[in-house]
Amino acid sequence: MHARLAGLGFKPQHAGALLAGEAVVDFLEVHAENYMVDGGPRLRLLERLRERWPLSVHGVGLSLGGLQPPDAAHLARLAALVRRFEPRWVSEHLAWSAHGGTCFPDLLPLVYDEAALVRVAAHVDRLQQALGRQVLIENPSTYLEFDASVLDEGEFLAELVRRSGCALLLDLNNAWVGAVNHGRDAWALVAALPPSAVGEIHLAGFAEDRDAAGAPLLIDNHGSAVADPVWALYRRTLQRLGPVPTLIERDHEVPPLAVLAAELAQVRRALAETPAAAAVGADAPRRLSRPAPAAADEPLPAFAAALLDPAAAVPPGLRAWNGSDPAVRLAVHRNNVAAAWVRALADGFPVLRRLVGEACFDTLALTHARHEPPPGPVLGDWGDGFAATIRRCEPMHGLPWLAEVAQLERARVRAALAADAAPLATAAVQAHLAHPEHLPGARLQLHPSLAALCFDHAAVSIWAAHQGDELPPTLATDGAEAALVLRDAGDAVLTLAVDAPAATFCAALAAGRPLGAAAAEAGPALDLAATLALLLRHAAVVGWEHRMEAA
User: What superfamily would CATH give domain 6-272?
Assistant: First the structure.
């Protein structure tokens, strides 16, 4: 697996600069769950990137360390993504992130024992069988340990390689974070791994905090530059492994591409100085770190329950290496999960967040997450019920238009991620219109992105007034409004103000009703010609069938 390749975790804000050649990058990594969409601009951009660079697809949602096998539907989506884009590498994490039908957007720790080894090896095997290829498993950042663990992390990973045939993604920032957080030597993890199994290296940054005893507690935040001790560990690791494809990760506080290009240059220099054949000793023998403890209940369910209830006590069986109160360390995971939930909803409801303010929005988001947590790791799929949560929230009862703005924003997200569909050709439309006697029975197929919305309040005007940097001096909320939301041929998501009859007509068409029935449902105020012209002008009609309706 020796290769002097320096890669970068792709961020959409860097797309223009990358495609313009403003940085030397050997490969790009994308998070799989960000591209598990039906269609739209994300996939088209990924196609452009794939034409220029090898891809690494990095999964965060299969919960390989969980008690249940990987979710079949999610695994199928990953397999489809891999088939379409044919990445050079596919990787996942030695962690769990789902339990009891709830997805926790964090990489959570597991017990390192024989039972977990058997379970994780089976899950990795299922993943590799589904993809038809070897995958790389990444060592996680950890803040807590389980009393029930009997293997060191390095021993666990080495044995996982032996049993499953997987390869490893060695995250040296995670190795350093875990070593400091558990009072260990980071090199012990590197030395325990079979050198030939390491197929990729990750470098990232961390934040610094303190635990309950005042000891350093490092937080893997992917929001800062690679730290000096991690660079030192990287150079030493290369001397053991030889040159390995290496990636710079930055997921938060993302700087301009030029800043990351400077870190890539450091990677490239280190790889150039590394001999092709590294000198390594024999692999460490397999051993148990300490005698197995008495049998205990599986701790993951209690851990999951504690994440959902921030007031819950620390579950039994968790410990800190220095004997300090583990609650501070558990709070890292609670904060990670809560922040990811809030961030996912904030990305999808920006106007609502401006309307209520950040603090109120965060409270609403956490209320929604704890009553209706995301059922899966693709957070773009989550949010349909947010408007209902707002309606149920007593302080919002006097502001009924807020829930309607949420409905509109959610429709815009769904439009951006909807499947692609080619519009009906002009000649075909003209041919259909040449037979007006067939129109009542015609069934028009509308673009999958289209949503027709009717509101009791001025939700469309409120949303439109908050598209600029300046807030409107006054906010008119009275007056029923309606809109069509759809993605146009240029991938722009449009919000078209229409009257209620037009929206009702389009909703009926989208539900599969024939044109005549849809027009009757809309009522006599419908301007049929104008509404059809609007749909055709925005490429919203993608199919047209004639069916003679029974008398």
Answer: Divalent-metal-dependent TIM barrel enzymes (3.20.20.150)
